[in-house]
Predict the structure.
Amino acid sequence: MFGAVLAAVAVRGWFGDLLDGARLRAWSTVFIAICLQAMPFLALGVTISGAIAAFVPAGWLARVLPARPALSVPVAAAAGMALPGCECGSVPIAGRLVARGAPTAAALTFLLAAPAVNPIVLVSTAVAFPGRPEVVAARLVASLIAAMAVGLVWSRWGNDALLSRLRRDGIETRSRRAAFVETAQHDLLHAGGFLVIGAMGAAALQTVVPRALLAELGDHGVASVLLVGVLAVVLAVCSEADAFVAASLTGFSGTAQLAFMVVGPMVDVKLVALQAGTFGRSFAQRFAPLTFVVTVASSLAVGTWLL
Amino acid sequence: MVVVSRVAGGSLTVLIGMLLVRVVLDGSAVDYVQPVMQPFLAVAGVVIGGLGLWALADGRAWGDPPAPDAHDAGHGHGHGHGHGHGHGQERVGWWLLAPVVVLFAVAPGALDAMAVSADDTMQVRARGGEWAPLDPTAVNPLTLAEFADRALDPQGGVESISTATVRLVGFVAKGGPADGLRIARFTIACCAADALVAKVDVLDTGAAAPPLGTWIEVEGTYVAGGTVPRVRASSLAIVPEPANTYE
């Protein structure tokens, strides 16, 4: 491994020249930026995940959380609001919650709510839209509705068997300390690996899809809400920062801007890679489209109502 | 190599932690993320590096007795995949080497003039609201983004910059008027992935424009019109690249 790094340093000269294309450099910058930006959140996420493995007894979550999704889902949404996480940190936590026996609907709602609505995200939204508190309110409401709706839909029609491999939580707890270290490190390398793959894709799409294109597309009602939703998936901007990008989409309606901020934190390129890695590909194939449809619908409804 | 062995996993984790601390210490972190993120990166680096050291130390203390990695490796491919939990790591962890290699091999640096396209009409947010009045008797330093915001806001923004001299700093970018030049600068909220570019055209600079990427300080006054906000320069100077190239 260290050999690979040394070799990379050795060939830096010609390699740097080879990759001197403006686009490749921009790709590298954005790729590194996404990785660096995610690391503090990932570190927080795997620390919590390790603590869950070490201190939450198996089966305890299933006992304390209400069995009925109608009750456990709002509890999970509230828990998600309190955690100042981003997408990258909430995936390993949600995976660990499922592994420890939390109801799937509640864990999925937590997964979606944690990055979408938390104090940091709401404050940055208020800064990006000065003098427009209704945008912050709309984001909060639309995100909570979407996160809970996905949890409830999954509890009704979803297939928990898709998550069965997570339940085989094969950590032999030699000690709490060992459980913490093993889990945190495993989740760091696992989620980190998928994060890197997702960041590569997001950076590539960013350098290929010019955001300038959007300024000229103008507003076409529902079609542009869908378009902006797709853009949010493709650009994969962190939930703490997406309000600033949304605010720059000046050619679009408030509802379309809202969709950018509601869709992005719940389903985007790097997130799908992370979810596929943590929960399995067949799960992600169903979960990502479901989340996309629900978030766009929620944005449309709340945006029409509040903005 | 089917799985990341315990020792390799620990070393990889330590390496990531060291990388995070390093980009903060050598100042290159601001090429990629907001300066405000630096302490968080450093803390994350210490936490991750410590986690890796801890995992390595524990692994050695136990002498890795059940040798789960050898076990996984022995059973070949499919085995390590499904339940890597606690038994070594899955191969995907190796991808974490990619940012390390890119940082060392390419060292891409901040987004620069080459990342601005000439026909990119996207502007920073044109937000409404109150604009702080500028001092008409002095030179007012403004970020390019704020100048563009004001220039693009017909309700009060334009008025606020019409009667004062401003000082702007940016790099020479593609495009711009025939008899002048265009300066630009990226604004980031969190990291370079959310970068937005602000541009200002400087009119009547006369002589041949400096090469792309040259950092320029302009003092001048707002000129109405144009899709890109415009100033007429009263003074123009080449300045060194700022430590943080973003606004």
Q: What stands out?
A: Chain A touches chain B through 86 residues (CB under 8 Å). Residues 9-20 of chain A have pLDDT under 50 and may be disordered. The two ends of chain A are 53 Å apart (CA to CA).
